[in-house]
Amino acid sequence: MPIAWVLVAVAALFAIAALAPMTLSRRRAEAGTLIYGACAAACTLILVIALAALLGAVDAGGTLVLPLGLPWLGARFRIDALAAVFLVLVDLGGVAASLYAIGYGRHESAPGRVLPFYPAFLAGMNLVVVAADAFSFLVAWEFMSLTSWAMVMAHHHDAENRRAGYVYLVMASFGTLSLLLAFGLLAGAQGDYAFAAMRGAAHADWVAGTVLGLMLLGAGSKAGLVPLHVWLPLAHPAAPSHVSALMSGVMTKVAIYGFVRVVFDLAGPPAWWWSVVVLTLGSITAVLGVLHAVMQRDLKRLLAYSTVENVGIVFIGLGLALAFKANAMAGPAALALTAALFHAFNHSLFKSILFFGAGAVLTATGKRDIEALGGLIRRMPHVAYAFLGGCLAIAALPPLNGFVSEWMILQAILLSPALPQWGLKFLVPAAGAMLAFAAALAGACFVRAFGITFLGRPRSPEAAGAQDGDRWSTGVMKTLLGLCLVVGILPNFVIDALHPVSDLLVGGAMPAQSLLPHLSIVPISESRSSYSGLLVFLFILISTRLAIRVIHDFASRRVRRAPAWDCGWPDPNPATQYTADSFAQPLRRVFGPMAFRSRIEATMPPPGDPSPARLVLSLRDLVWDTFYAPIAGIVLAIAEKLNHLQFLTIRSYLSLVFAALVGLLLMVAVWA
Amino acid sequence: MDRFALDAAHMLAGGMVLVSFMLLYQNRMFGLLNVYALHAVVLSLSVAWQAHVQDAPHLWVTATIAVVLKAIVIPVALRRMVIRLGVHRTIETVGGIGPTMLMGIGLVALSMVVMLHAAADADPIAREDLALALSVILLGLLMMVTRHNAVSQIVGFMSLENGLILAATGARGMPLVVEISIAFSVLVAFIVIGVFLFRIRERFDSVDTQAIDDYRGGRE
């Protein structure tokens, strides 16, 4: 039974986690290689099983009940089509991160703080996906949160990381609480926590609606939906880079899995207004995420904000799927759902490349601030080209994979006039506009990220002396990039592999794509639209080749080296280059006052004073200011008020206990 | 016979409530200890009666423990302690007898109402015993709350524990081991508290807990 093998692999991951501390007494590099290699092997096993289950090679049906957890329930595990898709996603990311870490982990200053938690984190994510009852799901979910929290706190000497860990812990607990309430509502008065029972039960409208809200809070806070995203740009960069890649590329997807599982599978048929909520939140998330990303100077934080954007895009797709499903339009719903899941998969691929690249840059230079980097393409060509590929993919340029999934979501948006509700008819095109806007800004964002980091001249001595990444890390990055390209050129097979999921969740599927001419994909019908990654790829290949030929034949072949022209003042100082902040300036000019309440303060020295003039730019996170600061203030005020309860006399404490007891007895007497 | 058994059990349990009220207004140390001994004697009588009625031999053991430990050993030890502490002449100012008694009456009424509500379909002998036991417990708590002197607070605690034993014996089939362990835990608590009392006195020259709070000072 495949599920049994998956659980064996998960148990193996737990065993690796338990054994990890023992290997630490040996030489560091060997310990890391051993642990990460074993993790990669376990993840490969699950990956193979999940792929086989998804493609129908093995029959994965059937629930495995283990006598763990709640005594009357046991722990149920099952692989259905949806779980198989996300198992593939989790373990592909897991294999990549583990192999990358074989090289990257050698530079880790405190491996003992990462090694034991890393396998446990992988195990937790796998368990969330295969869990088939609410109890195991929640335990695995919380386990996943706590192990990743431990790795966020790996470098806890940094006050910023401690703050990140604190915010993350608060948000994760809040999210789990929401999930707990959602499952409690779904289980109903009988309290049957098996997913099969929840799926079978009929839920009242208000129950299903409340469950949607709670899932948006619970899964949304883990995935990074605005306004619950605040922990994400703090926590993801704080972890070691391979863990950042897993958290950003994979853990957010596990959260999306939780949302899809409950809202599409367990909560019963959706009402049309659900899609309004999901679409609105998704659009806001996409745009705000990318706007923040454009402004960031910290490379890893930029990537984390870009994760927020991509989660928003996935939620736009899910919202569309809900809208079509509520109106019993199975075909379009299948298109939207497939596109959303496809984008989730793609994002896990290219976000892993980008975080791996950021990690390589971080180990080579010790810097995350892109204003201190530059010129790395000459020092670290392997990393630079892989990172460039990741940037192209995430900026949704054909023929890479990011384009296909965003194009499919836009195709689904174009079907919105067929929706009967007027609210949706207006909202969906607006969401489409937001999506297009976010995609454009993402392009700008990654031009900036790549250009400032890898092009130009080095802005610091560390950047000037950087070494290229080791063979493991660059190899993994290139392999993932190859996957991005293959998936981008041959999306047909991915779409067909997602067929059973849309069958399961929206009761319909996209037309089969594998055997179409030119390997093109046709989301709805040939007359509307089609896209062939292969043709686009060939066209780009041939036209580039031609352009190079033409240039070389008709222009000079000679390489000339000369000082760069800069307005007649050849200044050797690299600080005179175009900076990241100057690149972002036009966007900041337009959106800054609205989205960030940006302020620029210029301090000029008095006449005669030779000290330099200073320009101070301040950006504020409005979400933090409007939502979190007041809540934190209220909590603090209440805590301050309750603080004097710590300093009462013994007799007062006794009196309090006594009063509470009498009060409870009074309640029993009155209401019992 | 049944009717009589019920009435006798009620009378003994009611007697414990009455003695609890007597504890509430005692403001002299020796008087307090004497009444506490009386409390324990009534408890042992009640337990013995339950042993007879329920035909449960192990309850005799409980009754014996109650007489020996609570009616003799603990009061005698407390008496010696009070003499060594030099507080035997202290007259405690309790917040006013009248209000305290009124509160006590209110608590008894509350526990009656609660039990009649909550255990409406239970065995009447168990139910009313439980109501009276709950009153004893609440009165013990009330005493701990209203007293300043650490010794009186101990006596309040001990009488509260007597209420627990009363409740436990009223229910049929409570295993002996539970009762014995409760008895021993009380003994241990007694020893620990005794040690603490002397330590407190050493430090603060008083066993009035108010002194400790004053000494701590700072934030109130």
Could you describe the 3D structure shown?
The complex is a heterodimer of chains A (672) and B (220). In chain A, 69% of the residues lie in helices and 2% in strands. With 672 residues, chain A is an all-alpha fold. In chain A, strand 1 (64-66) and strand 2 form a beta hairpin. In chain A, 50% of the residues are buried. Chain B has helices spanning 2-25, 29-54, 57-85, 97-118, 124-146, 150-170, 176-204, 209-216. In chain B, helix 6 (150-170) runs antiparallel to helix 7. The interface between A and B is medium-sized, with 16 and 20 residues. Chain B: It is a multi-pass membrane protein. Chain B: Keywords: Cell membrane, Membrane, Transmembrane, Transmembrane helix. Chain B: It comes from Siculibacillus lacustris. Chain B: InterPro entries: HyfE-like.
Helix content of chain A: 55-70%
Outline of chain A: globular
Low-pLDDT runs of chain A: none
Q: Per the principal axes of the C-alpha atoms, what is the gross shape of chain B? A: globular
Terminal residue distance of chain A: 51 Å
InterPro entries (chain B): HyfE-like
Transmembrane segments (chain B): 6-25, 32-52, 58-78, 99-118, 130-147, 154-174, 180-198
Subcellular location (chain B): Cell membrane
Keywords (chain B): Cell membrane, Membrane, Transmembrane, Transmembrane helix
Summarize the structure.
With 672 residues, chain A is an all-alpha fold. Chain A contains 25 helices and 4 strands.
Please write out the topology:
The complex is a heterodimer of chains A (672) and B (220).
Chain A: H1 2-23, H2 28-54, E1 64-66, E2 75-77, H3 81-104, H4 117-130, H5 134-152, H6 159-187, H7 195-200, H8 205-223, H9 232-238, H10 241-266, H11 272-295, H12 299-326, H13 330-365, H14 376-379, H15 381-394, H16 401-414, H17 422-454, H18 461-464, H19 471-489, H20 491-497, H21 499-506, H22 533-554, H23 580-596, E3 599-603, E4 614-618, H24 622-642, H25 650-671
Antiparallel strand pairs in A: 1-2, 3-4
Helix pairs in contact in A: 1-2, 1-4, 2-3, 3-4, 3-10, 3-13, 3-19, 4-5, 4-10, 5-6, 6-8, 6-9, 8-10, 9-10, 9-12, 10-12, 10-13, 11-12, 11-17, 11-23, 12-13, 12-16, 12-17, 13-15, 13-16, 13-19, 13-21, 15-17, 15-19, 16-19, 19-20
Chain B: H1 2-25, H2 29-54, H3 57-85, H4 97-118, H5 124-146, H6 150-170, H7 176-204, H8 209-216
Helix pairs in contact in B: 1-2, 1-4, 1-5, 1-6, 2-3, 2-6, 3-7, 4-5, 5-6, 6-7
